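The material for today's practical consists of a large collection of protein records. There is nothing in a record beyond a sequence line and a structure line. As an example, a complete record with its sequence and its structure tokens follows:
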Amino acid sequence: MGPPKANLTPVSSLRVSKHQIPAHHRIPNTSIQHKPLLHYHSAFTKDSSSASAIEAHLTAVGVVNPQWRYTMYSTTHFHSTTHEVLCIVQGGARLCFGGEENPGRVEASVHVGDVVLVPAGVGHRLLEEEGDEGFELVGSYPKGCSWDMCYGKEGEEVKVEGIRRLAWFERDPVYGEEGPALAV
């Protein structure tokens, strides 16, 4: 018997928040590709949002490879080599996207079952965990991509330029042939 099956909120009923975040200092955010940060609210139903069920679902859809289970770093960082798909599997948290000193930043509360698609270049960090059970994500990246760590520091300019060449999703990493990632 395999892992439990993940059940999805129908895409027609899914609430999605989309955010364009301006560059701030050396964090490019969405200014290079103009693909928005996407927050799928309750994409996975609460009864089917275990880490193993979500990893099996993402693997079956075949767009991204789940690579880790952990919390989010509390230091603002971004990736220049890949977009990132974060699925909340335990607890809740308040996250900051865009850099904490950026007037155009987004602070979002995320909960079990939510999915956040973080475009390459978007700074992100954990502000605070909500609740007592701990906060855990499944982190995934498009097939063939490996992630790097950038912090908006001098010397990262060549890495940041590489964001221009990254392909966007041809299929939604959660919903496959339909889904919010295809409508941007």
In short: The two ends are 38 Å apart (CA to CA). The chain has one domain: 11-183.
